[in-house]
Structure formats: structure tokens, C-alpha cells
Amino acid sequence: MSKVRTRDLSFELRAGETLLDGLERTGHAVEYQCRSGYCGACRTALVNGAVRYQQEPLAFVASGEVLPCCCRPEGEVQLDVPLVTLKKQA
After folding, report:
1. Does 70 reside within a domain?
2. Collapsed DSSP state (helix, strand, coil) of residue 27
3. Alpha-carbon distance 83 to 16, whole Å?
4. Residue range(s) defining the domain that contains residue 60
5. How many domains does the chain have?
6. DSSP code of 36?
7. Distance CA 58, CA 27 (A)
8. Pairwise CA distance, residues 72 & 1, whole Å
9. What's the rounded Cα separation, in Å, for the pair 12 and 5?
10. What distance in Å separates the CA atoms of residue 62 and residue 64, rounded to the nearest whole number?
11. pLDDT digits (tens, 9 = 90+) for 3-22
12. For 39-78, what is each residue's pLDDT tens digit?
């Protein structure tokens, strides 16, 4: 298992989870569409650490970015991702 740190908390990925799976499970706000590295909608800033892709994504990934939908961390990683903010009901 790998440790993931974000703006608001730290958590462990479960066996077989992608970064996106873990971020969703812990209530983080990540946009996505394809879940397989084609569209790049989930592009996220990687603050620290390294990831690996099982297959090279088709979407462009710049230095310091990751596509959490299709990668897994190599050790501990830190991402610039916020928790989902819930709107207060009046």
C-alpha cells in the first residue's frame, strides 16, 4: 500500500486502487471523464513523489503532473488536491 498526502489529509491506497479511486473514496474533488488516460480531465499537480503508469497515457502529462485515473504511486506521494466542499443548505 502507498501513502497519499493531499492539501487536507493523508490516507493509504487500498490494494488495486488507482490514485483516482483513493481520492474519490476519501472525498477529494477530482474531475474525470475517461478513467483510462485518454482525456486528461483528471490532470493533477504532483507536489512530491513518483507514480507509474501501467500503459503510457494518451493525454499529455507535463512534468509535475499526474493522471490519477490510471497511475499508482511508487512510495509516498503528495498531490495538490482539495477535499470536496459541501454547500450549506439554507
Report:
1. yes
2. coil
3. 22
4. 3-79
5. 1
6. S
7. 27
8. 10
9. 9
10. 6
11. 999 999 999 999 989 999 99
12. 999 999 999 999 999 889 999 999 999 999 999 999 999 9
**Cα–Cα distance for residue pair 31/43, rounded to 1 Å:** 8
* CATH number, position 59: 3.10.20.30
Distance separating alpha carbons of residues 48 and 64, to the nearest angstrom: 8
Task: Work out the number of other CB atoms within 10 angstroms of the CB of residue 2.
Answer: 18
Give the integer Cα–Cα distance in Å for 68 and 41. 10
Which strands sit side by side in the sheet containing 65-66, from one edge to the other? Answer: 10-12, 3-5, 77-79, 44-48, 65-66
90 occurs within a structural domain:
no
Provide the pLDDT for residue 11.
Answer: 97
